[in-house]
Design brief:
Length: 199
Amino acid sequence: MYEANDVTEEEVNHLFMIHKKPLCQGCRVNTRDNPNCFCALVPPPNGTRKSGLWQKTSELIQALGPDLSSHRRASLSSPSGLTNLGATCYANSILQCLYMNSAFRDGVFSLEAEVLQQHPVLDQIARLFAQLRASNRSFVDSDAFVKTLELDNEIQQDTHEFLTLLLSLLERCLSHSAVSKAQTIVQHLFRGRVSHVTS
């Protein structure tokens, strides 16, 4: 039985069988069984390494541009975008317009927790708005909202029709709120009247 610091260097070498392994002569391939080989820790000038401490990005990947998943917002005053999940740009444009409407956004943020729990669409839009406001990333994933509405991300929809249906749904859900500015926000901001006059 060994006490602390009783293991000798010779015993460590024996444990890792260093005495049986040849010293590396610049093989450029990291031999998994050879603790003497450190060649692949740093890739050769024209090579690449897919993972590891000294990862090098290939010229092809560099030509594609920066990794969008690591993009960060320049400042909190510049809004985040939404990921396009296929043919969801019509929904994303409406969501971004609704978010940029500060009165609507404040109405959504004023909702009670119980109302959010009872109405998944309100919960998802509140979560999405919170991410758009607080996220450091330059874009936010709208997948949960799209799934809540059961939108098909392979079929393009009419933006105006989507807005009309979404506002009708939100109006019904918001009517359950006890917060007056949230309860009537859709009627207050988006309801209008069309009249046709024939002379």
